[in-house]
Amino acid sequence: MTQPNIHSRPNRSYKLVPYDPVWKKRFEGLATELSPIFGENFIKIEHIGSTSVPGMIAKPQIDAILVVKDLDHVKYLYTTMSNYGFKSFGNFIQKAEPEEYFAKDNELGERLFSVHVMQEGNPEIEDTINFRDYLVANSEARDAYINYKQKLMQEFGDQDYNSYSKGKVNFLEELKSKARAWQEKNLN
Fold first, then answer.
1. Which pLDDT score is estimated for 94?
2. pTM exceeding 0.85
3. For the chain, which has fewer Cβ within 10 Å, the N-terminal or C-terminal residue?
4. CA distances in angstroms from 51 to 70, 91, 143, 162, 186, listed in the order given
């Protein structure tokens, strides 16, 4: 299955800010809030994305993967998640392995949290966590990613998130390939 054009979503402004240690605490608060909502279906929640990498510049939104036993049961939580301020986007990105995507914005429409709910066994879980761990462990890769993000922001400005996001695709695939090689080396 090919990945849909996620960049056809409505364009929006964005900002990149220096790493802020409060992001870890915001994630911890998110984890505390969400784990009881998912109840017995909950396995774990992981902080991912640039806010999970000390020293990284990032959009100041917390990204997380929430792992569940049965993804089909998540649709029964749409109303509860809405009561907590999260909007459900269903399987928004439509990757080969489905997920449920939830987002929470502030009153100005700025994204605060993005939560990717995935069923245990989804290979993207390990791949994404490994990528985070690679950037944490490898300052050269982290700094290269910072420089690339800054280059894209200079090229596209802060009002064209879709072009910025699309511009990262090939660079991220290259970094993820290096992260997989790093993981293989560490496993041996």
1. 66
2. yes
3. C
4. 27, 23, 14, 19, 24
